[in-house]
Queue: 2 jobs
Job 1
Amino acid sequence: MTPNLVYVVVIGVLFAAGVSMVLERSLTRVLMGMILLGNGVNLLILLGGEAGTPPIVGLGPGEQMADPLPQIMILTAIVITLGMTAFLLALAYRSWAMSGHDEVQDDVEDQRIMRLAERDQGSGTDDTDHEATP
Amino acid sequence: MTFLVPLPVVMPLLGAALTLMMARRPRAQRTVSLTVLTATLLVSCALLYFSTTDGSLVVAVGGWEAPLGIVLIADQLAALMLVVSSAVTLCVLVYSIGQGMADGHEETPLSVYHPTYLVLTAGVTNAFLAGDLFNLYVGFEILLVASYVLLTIGGTENRIRAGSTYVVVSLLSSVIFLTAIGLIYAATGTLNLAQLVERLDELPDGLRLILQGMLLLAFGIKAAVFPLSSWLPDSYPTAPAPVTAVFAGLLTKVGVYAIIRTETLLFPGGRAAVVLLVTGLLTMVIGILGAVAQSDIKRLLSFTLISHIGYLLFGVGLTTQLGLSSAIFYVVHHITIQTTLFLAAGLIEQRGGSTALDRLGGLAKLSPVLAVLFLVPALNLAGIPPFSGFIGKLGLVQAGVADGGVLAWMLVGGGILTSLLTLYAVARVWNLAFWRTPPKSMPSVRLPALMVAPTLALVTLGVGLTFAAGPLFDVGDQAASTLMQRSGYVEAVYGEGGAP
């Protein structure tokens, strides 16, 4: 398909909105971002093939047939996105059930190291004297 | 012998379906999984033998010839990776069965574990055998989806937290990969790797560079190359020990394999060589500095995993045959050793009740077997002669010196520094967990034989790599020379006449 402005702008907007949603902390918003990104990519793939009549032998002259390969790839990509959406939803729900929110938390170990760095302390792991370590 | 080629993908998938149907019969599940993975290992060995004697084996799936149909291709590199990966997955499966018995099925709900594990194996083998970019993407998705389930298995709060990061980052890398595939198809009208070899050469330079950059970005996230690596140490350590072990051994290496495949086959001539070398250097040094600072064995090992990916990039980035063959040898070594170390960390957790270094001590006296199982692969990782880590690093250093450029010398220096710091990091674990007097009395737990035996088998395999280093380097060298002359790959796919 020859790229026209409408398609290009729509893909651009889907990507931009998707990226900004993925940068959020809440898993539900990340999920929305992933769906937008996935749709953007699918449209992009569609632009890669020739447009034309339905790609079924006998329905028309072969020269005018649409390229079926991008459509097949999009179909596969949609199925994968659907599965991932279900999994991310389950993950967000589980996170909400366990901790009351669905926000992606900082790593526990990273938080610990940051706290130690603020107080300018060592981790105490290498001390041979065990009474000193809490 | 081409009927063997699809088997490493088909058998685990069938096994997954069977084990899913046997959800209530754990004993039958175990039998099926073990049989399937043993058969996969045997088939992979046969593939390696035939691809060495008769050249690459190619199957057009569904009977449609290339470039219309999808091809699976088992050349030496793919076959070698298949052998190592199936050996590792088999050992880890036995280990996880041992751990399941010891933990009383609490940590790993067996009904989901076996099917998911087999699906993961199928994804890995599919990615290795793929002769088509979209099939490579599907292989990646299969293994990633299985890995999401394995990483969050049990659904505890920690695993959900670590899993969220992992899932989101992996999804993003998949989106980038898929975008790259869409652009490549739009530019060339094909995704068959053999056909891309010619069609990509006809594209303008700037466009090729963009496509190459996008693929490198996508694979770089999966392979945990430095600026894209911070998801790995946050997510891997929370999973059960066997899961972490198989992830550490295989998943990042599939990314590295994809980098090797695309850089040599699709984008030869080393235009991204500088990028690979610089990121390789940063990955090595910054990764290992992270490892030195850790106070938990599993996190420390995750950082050494990132760090040693740098060595592989070093070998690929040199774009010489010696560099590439050393990188292939190093991949084989690193898959085995890193998995073994994570299994040993699992044993330490079993014996000492924790992997936090400030809670461990005196394990050398309490469990001499465990001490040997940890020390041998640890020294191997650090590259102490005569272990295979030393041989691999020596090959890379030789390749770097032969290259002679400023950047190559910096990488040689960085590689040696990383090796020394790795030794420091593992020696620190050894001193704290094995030698000092224990901070509190250790519980007296007997290590289950089914956990010790596979770890021992992998330790033996790691040591065996030293004795097999000569033949293995020869195979790596042949694989590298086939990769360097791309015509071999194209002829294998299209037959003698070359492309139509």
Job 2
Amino acid sequence: MGRIDEEFRAKRAAGRKLLVPYITGGYPGWQDAIRACAANGADAVEIGIPFSDPVMDGPVIQAASQAALEAGVTPTSVLDEVPNLDVDIPLAVMTYYNLVHHPGPERFAANLARAGISGAILPDLPLEESGPWCEAADANGIETIMLAAPTAPDERLPLVAARARGFLYSVGLLGVTGERASLADTATALAARLKAITDVPVLVGVGVSNAEQAHQATRVADGVIQGASMVRRLMESGPDAVGDYVAEVRAAIDAD
Amino acid sequence: MNPPPATLSAPPDQTGRFGEFGGRFVPETLVPACQELEAAFNDAWNDPGFRQELHDVHVQYSGRPSILTECHNLGEQLGVRLILKREDLNHTGSHKINNVIGQALLAKRMGKKRIVADTGAGQHGVASATAAALMGLECKVYMGAVDVERQALNVFRMKLLGAEVESVESGSRTLKDAVNEAMRHWVANVSDTYFCLGSVVGPHPYPYMVRQFQSIIGDEAHEQIVEMTGAMPDVVVACVGGGSNAMGLFAGFVDEPSTRLVGVEPAGGAAVGRGTPGVVHGSRSYLMQDEVGQVEEALSISAGLDYPGVGPEHAHLAAIGRAEYPNVTDAEVIDAFRLLSETEGIIPALESAHAIAWLSREAHTMQSQTVLLNLSGRGDKDVAQMMDILADEFGVES
């Protein structure tokens, strides 16, 4: 059992809701932002490794990725910094499959393990194509966090859940990452479908945009992932603002 | 490894792969949509009623079959027997209409209300807007901001045809970014929107489906050239960006071992010639990428060809040595654009001028051979751009 899996199940058993912020690796201040997340109640952090063609991301995260790429950020330069973060929560990376395919799944998984990364989210690698990566990830102790989408028919969800390690990423709505005025009905609906079929922790991400929405989502799900609302604060106000926001969301999801 | 198909024109395997290329690398949200599309396409393609309807629209609306034109002047100058397949004579001015009519009919059959498309030079956008108008579908077209500027006339055309044109400001602001935005739009609107891809790229079933819709080029040409010359051509040649006009032409000749298949890439966007295997926009193929796997910007004088990837079936044909993919420079393309115009009275699209450029450079190696060249589109859309380039030489105001 991997570190995310172990810690998330233990926390869930203790009645805690899980909070996973997303921070774009390589964007100025990203390391301090991750430290601020850890200090203010995040249970893990998802580090984005910027890719030139991020089809699952909306304008905010895409802009952060593009800025990081223009500053010369590479997968190696992000991973090299991870040991210096010195935070006591598990870290996962989120990136696109070409950055795995290019060095090869084996080498990429080994690089993650060496940097101290626990998990990986690859949004453009669906179940049917995930074989070579999952094998390499398992062999290197990297937990592959699978995505489940609201469009999936009932018979597909157990197959996705069976392959998920760490937690299951329940995609909150039809659409790309970004902030929305309200939590989509699909977010809680899919989380409920997943909770009914799996014991793997279920976290809702994509379109969870503020503390209130996070609270709403965690009434059904085991936790939330928040990306665009974190990255926007990092870009507009810097790492401290990210920490304040994490504390605010933490308080909201702990309220029940 | 999967066993090779019985013929090179066979469908891909059940994972959508041609050899080791292809597949379906898309966000989980789109997997059911791709599966639904695959089933719908197979059902339609095997339905004689659908095929008849497609045929009727092509005959009565697109202007098919397109003719073959023997180029006596240029052929003599180059020392080859040069025959053009005239896709430039199709309604909307290029081969793009073949695919779009097929996909729009399929979208209607699937009960979709709206099609979303991406476009580089605007040919696919114009074709999509045209088919949508014909069939009563809404149409939204994503186009890189750079291309919106380069191809103002086509933007106006699309709007005139009732389409909404969305200028894409992200990334390199060209075709690859338009594809990204169109895919994002599809992710958000997958329940009622049909994604009309313009080339033999993307997740399975698109590369296969678009090839089938474009194979009408090769099927017609195969029959026509036998009638005209009594034999198979020695060489068939077409330009390659994503590669749909080339794939359509190749489909008619890929199982004729005596015919050489040549796909000509732009030097600044030579995905096969200078790329390495990678995964972008839903499939594994040759891709122009940097040393860590970031996708590079392709650069070509022709907006329709500056795409950093290539269709996976082309990657397969290159890998097994069945087709060759040389490239030509923008300067050679400009010369070729003028050459065909001056010798034959045919102004080619800049895309098609790539094929002519390669032929004029290499013709000395194929003297007296029969060369079938796909003239994928007409040059009307490029005239303003070329006028800027050639203004001084021609003594005109640009």
